[in-house]
Write a structure and sequence with these properties.
Length: about 200
Amino acid sequence: MGHHIGPKARVNRRLGLEVYDSSGALRASHRRIFPPGQHAQRRKRPTDYGRALMEKQKVCHYYGLRQRQIMRFYHMAKKSPGNTGENLLTLCERRLDNVVWKAGLAKTRVQARQAVSHGHFLVNGRRTDIPSYIVEPEDVIQVRKAENLQKVYSTRCEEVDRPPAAFLAVDPKELTVKVVKLPDKDDVGLPVNVNQVVELLSR
């Protein structure tokens, strides 16, 4: 999916999940809770493949992944010790744009992705503009020392009332985020059957 530029409310309605959290998408999703399309309410029961594909689409839309990216994460997860599905979601959680959103430095995931792409953040003192950058424990992410950026993100931290993820230590005064540990399954906020995703990707 990558950067999805189509109607986000339609995706929410099709997947039955608020994967896009912009205010417009949420309002539209709440107005129409059934899937999009003329005959959506009369559709046949999905097959096993269809259900697995929908679970994969949840992950792709939620984290902003394309097919090539999720396959790369799958192969990395498969080579790592432990459960492949949990490893896959852990890698997704470690994306820089996701960390920025989980730290409360962005109102939405799309906003976090855009901020990273524009080079607003430093990782361990180096400017990083790759949203898919994978953070490691002890990494420190901070807003660049530009007066306009410092002002914007100070205001944003006050506006976002979402608590930061447990694997992050956030200092709102210094506008810094430290990765204190690897995220685990409790840090994943996406309700998804990851076993079906792994089964689909392994074909």
